[in-house]
Structures are given as structure tokens and as C-alpha cells.
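Bumping my old thread because nobody answered last time. Still need a sequence for this structure:
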């Protein structure tokens, strides 16, 4: 059966940073000069030429080659027949075993539907845990040369991790491609598993992104949110009242004139607190939040948004749409810090900091409650 080293292609090499490219080059005695693109191309050619070179060269990057800056979504599943191996179903539906064969279609035969081109087992002792490599046509771009433009098909190379032992599918692709891949997998596995349902990334934590940050022993450094009390319309007079209050507070902080501030507040109260305006029971902080979507409040990567006083004030009036979490993880004996972007609408986790397999597994285990 194929292993990881058999399923690495030039697009995977191109995603690596310069340091990783040089690590591969040193392993297989390839010159490290030139641009990163040139180096990646040389490495791709060398790795494609020999299985021995491929095995030797990819050792330094085996924990990151299919990880990196990647968007991840998860699909727990239940088999209709616990005794059945899904790889056998996949083999029957594809008419080839992707763990033993590769089928790479010509670019001009690709459609918008994802195509399984191959796969590999995670470990010889884990035959029910394997990856599928998926190719997806993403569009057509035109390259201008001289006085003409040549159309060129663009593709994405994605990875799907299937763990039959623990009952989940992990798709490593952006949300748009993941939607296509989940439909393809659902069609292939139809009748053999229950309907695929993308796991909510915050459901196990009471639908609170703050609780996910706590579970990861991390810090919530930024959140994207909308007001809980959505204000459909604001009249010109109402908008002006809000602006007048904020301006008056600024002025008071400069000159300390409480009389002027009180006059503005009383005037605004008359406009915003009348029963027929719709604002009588809406906190002013929620009113100010109308139209605001992103709250960082100076937390930065080193701070903790939940400790910011302004966030504490506004939090009761927000519906989180996602946010950024930074968390520590001991990886290969070294404490590293990873930053993820949590999408509550798409139910994806994007690794802003290039991930390792251990980092993905750490987040996966928390969200799927594996261990």
C-alpha cells in the first residue's frame, strides 16, 4: 500500500516555506540557491524522479507537508454495518483502490467535481486510517503573452483523512472546496454510513468560542461578531443622537464640562428612549454596536480579549461569528504557539500559523471529544 511519500506532489512542495525547502534540499544534496519557486521546482523534479529520493527527502517535512496553512472541517460518521471497511466501498465505487493505485486525469478532462487521484495509509499498523488525495478544478485564468492571452486551468490539491477506527472524516480544504468534497464523499459512501453532517466547531463548548479557547489553554485574541439586538433602521435623528453622545464624551474628556455632557445625554435620551422608537429596552452599548463586526480592542497576539474591559461590557450584546485563538502546544519537545481562525458560520478551523500534524490532531481531539 502507498505511504505518505508516494502521494506528495509539486503543489504540496510549493506551499512550503524557504526553511523547509532547504531542509529537503540538504537531505538529497540539491543546491539551495535561487528563488523559493525555483528551489521548489528543482525539488519537485528530483522527488518525482526516484522513490528512494522521495523517501529520503521528505523525512524533514513529513509532519507538515499536508498540514501548513490549511482550513479543516470534520464529519463524524456511523457505519450502517460495523463489520464493513469503507475503503472497500470506496474501491468499488471508484473502480480502483486509491491506496494501491493512482489515477490522475488530464487537466482538460477535469470538471468542477472533485476527483480522487490516490491515497495512502497513515501507518502500516493502522489500515483503517488513511488519506485520500483529491484534485479539484478551481477555475481558468488567462496568461497574457505578447498580444494574446492563453487560458490555463487552475486546480487545488486537497487531502481527506478518514479514520474508520474512531469514526470521522477530516477534510483539509477551504469551505468552498470542502462543500464539493463532502458531496462527493456522501455520494460514494451512500447507503454505508449515515448522512454526513459537518461538526459544529463550538457545539461541544456550549456554542461559545471563549470556551473553545479555554479548552485549548489558549487566548482569544480577536472576535468577529454582530449585535445580538439587530437594529433594522436608524433614522437620521437617531443616528445623530448616537454620534452626539460619543462626541460629547470625547469633549468631556478634554474639557471636563459636565453640564454640556448632561445636556447632550438628556436630549439623546428623549429620542432613543421613547416607547414608539423601538430603542426603549435596547442598551446603548448594543445600539452603538449596530454595524460593527470585528472586535480586537488592542488584545493583539500577546493579549487576551476576554480580559479587555470593553469586551466584557459589549459581550452580552454580541453574537459571535468567529474569532482568532492562539494556543501553546508541545510539538517535538518544543513549545510552539499556533494561531487559528475559527469560523462559526462555515464550521471550519483555519490555521493562520502553519500547522503540524500534531497541531491539527490537538484541535481535532478537542472538537470531536476523542481524548
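Sorry it took so long. Here it is:
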Amino acid at each position: 500500500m502507498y505511504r505518505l511519500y508516494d502521494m506528495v506532489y509539486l503543489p504540496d512542495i510549493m506551499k512550503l516555506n524557504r526553511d523547509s525547502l532547504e531542509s529537503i534540499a540538504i537531505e538529497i544534496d540539491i543546491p539551495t540557491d535561487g528563488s523559493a519557486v525555483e528551489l521548489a521546482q528543482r525539488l519537485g523534479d528530483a522527488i518525482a524522479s526516484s522513490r528512494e529520493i522521495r523517501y529520503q527527502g521528505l523525512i524533514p517535512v513529513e509532519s507538515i507537508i499536508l498540514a501548513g496553512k490549511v482550513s479543516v472541517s470534520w464529519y463524524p460518521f456511523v457505519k450502517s454495518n460495523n463489520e464493513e471497511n469503507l475503503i472497500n466501498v470506496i474501491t468499488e465505487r471508484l473502480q480502483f483502490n486509491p491506496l494501491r493505485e493512482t489515477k490522475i486525469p488530464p487537466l482538460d478532462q477535469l470538471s468542477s467535481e472533485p476527483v480522487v487521484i490516490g491515497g495512502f495509509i497513515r501507518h502500516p499498523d493502522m489500515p483503517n486510517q488513511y488519506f485520500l488525495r483529491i484534485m479539484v478544478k478551481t477555475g481558468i485564468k488567462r496568461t497574457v503573452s505578447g498580444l494574446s492571452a492563453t487560458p490555463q486551468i487552475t486546480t487545488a490539491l486537497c487531502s481527506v483523512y478518514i479514520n474508520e477506527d474512531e469514526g470521522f472524516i477530516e477534510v483539509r480544504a477551504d469551505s468552498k472546496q470542502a462543500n464539493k468534497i463532502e458531496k462527493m464523499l456522501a455520494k460514494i459512501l451512500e447507503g454505508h454510513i449515515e448522512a454526513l453532517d459537518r461538526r459544529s466547531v463550538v457545539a461541544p463548548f456550549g456554542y461559545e468560542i471563549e470556551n473553545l479557547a479555554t479548552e485549548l489553554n489558549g487566548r482569544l485574541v480577536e472576535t468577529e461578531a454582530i449585535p445580538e439586538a439587530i437594529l433594522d433602521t436608524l433614522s437620521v435623528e437617531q443616528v445623530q443622537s448616537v454620534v452626539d453622545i460619543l462626541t460629547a464624551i470625547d469633549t468631556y474628556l478634554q474639557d471636563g464640562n459636565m453640564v454640556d455632557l448632561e445636556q447632550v445625554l438628556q436630549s439623546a435620551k428623549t429620542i432613543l428612549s421613547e416607547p414608539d422608537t423601538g430603542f426603549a429596552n435596547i442598551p446603548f452599548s448594543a445600539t452603538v454596536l449596530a454595524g460593527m463586526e470585528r472586535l480586537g480592542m488592542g488584545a493583539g497576539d500577546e493579549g487576551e480579549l476576554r480580559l479587555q474591559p470593553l469586551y466584557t461590557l459589549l459581550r452580552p450584546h454580541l453574537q459571535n461569528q468567529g474569532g482568532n485563538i492562539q494556543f501553546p502546544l508541545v510539538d517535538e519537545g518544543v513549545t510552539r504557539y499556533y494561531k487559528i481562525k475559527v469560523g462559526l458560520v462555515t464550521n471550519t478551523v483555519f490555521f493562520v500559523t502553519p500547522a503540524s500534524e500534531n497541531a491539527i490532531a490537538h484541535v481535532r481531539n478537542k472538537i470531536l471529544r476523542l481524548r
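Residues 203-228+291-368 form one domain. Let me know if any region looks off to you.
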